[in-house]
Amino acid sequence: MLRLVTDDGELLTLVGCVPCAAPGENLTATGTFSSHPQYGEQFSALEVERYLPDVPYTARENAVVLPYADNPLDDEATGENVYLNMIRKRAGVPDIEEVYPDAAGYQAKMRELIRRERQVELCFENLRYFDTRTWMTAETDNNMPVYGMNISAKDHKANGEFWQRVICKYDGGRDGNRVFTKRCYLFPISQEELDRVKCTQNYGW
């Protein structure tokens, strides 16, 4: 369910499947209006098309633009990634193909650069956790020790122990050595739910 503002400035409740919709996007929806006994008038969408607004965007809207850049070859004819370059132009840096000419038209290399760009642009947004699962790379990216400052040290001087890079022993109550296996992509289904709907347990559980 989404709360949208129409072209006429009216507030509209839209129900239906709209995966990955983000603030700042424009939507074109087809469907029918209906009246819910509790929530009132709603628009039941049968089909929804998402597209970017034709207006200058802010840093916050990088979260809107970057998902469009996930296609390694946005323009298959030239190998250019249009949406990734939109972000780079705004930052005053050259197009990705200009900096890495060997990546133009090369999907594996371009995908690596896109994911790196997303990691930098959206740092501190708590999205990395979900990105590695979407890309199915968490077994590599998250299956390793976690390093940080030595927060238990008392010496905070410029060269003190506090600033030394150590394994974060307080990371999530663990010893700092994160473990991620194939089964970690999905949570286990409770036995009560398995018995209720007669479904199969998720892989590895």
Structure report:
With 205 residues, the chain is an alpha+beta fold. Helices cover 25% and strands 19% of the residues. It has helices at residues 62-65, 82-91, 96-99, 107-121, 128-134, 138-141, 191-197; strands spanning 2-5, 11-15, 26-36, 40-51, 147-149, 165-167. A four-stranded mixed β-sheet has the order 1-2-4-3, with no helix packed on it. The chain has a two-stranded antiparallel ribbon with strand order 5-6. The chain is extended. The mean pLDDT is 80.
Which strands sit side by side, in order, in the main sheet? 1-2-4-3
Strand tally is 6
User: Helical segment tally?
Assistant: 7
Order of helices and strands: EEEEHHHHHHEEH
Fraction in helix: 10-25%
Beta-strand portion reads: 15-25%
Distance between the termini: 32 Å
Radius of gyration: 23 Å
The general outline is: extended
Largest sheet: 4 strands, mixed
What do the pLDDT scores average to?
Answer: 80
Classify the secondary structure makeup into a structural class.
Answer: alpha+beta
- Which regions are unreliable across 5 or more consecutive residues at pLDDT < 50? none
How would you briefly describe this protein structure?
The protein has about 200 residues and is an alpha+beta fold. The chain is built from seven helices and six strands, in the order E-E-E-E-H-H-H-H-H-H-E-E-H.
Give the tags.
extended, 205 residues, 25% helix, 4-stranded mixed sheet, 7 helices, alpha+beta
Note the topology.
Layout (H helix, E strand, L loop, with lengths): L1 E4 L5 E5 L10 E11 L3 E12 L10 H4 L16 H10 L4 H4 L7 H15 L6 H7 L3 H4 L5 E3 L15 E3 L23 H7 L8
Parallel strand pairs: 2-4
Antiparallel strand pairs: 1-2, 3-4, 5-6
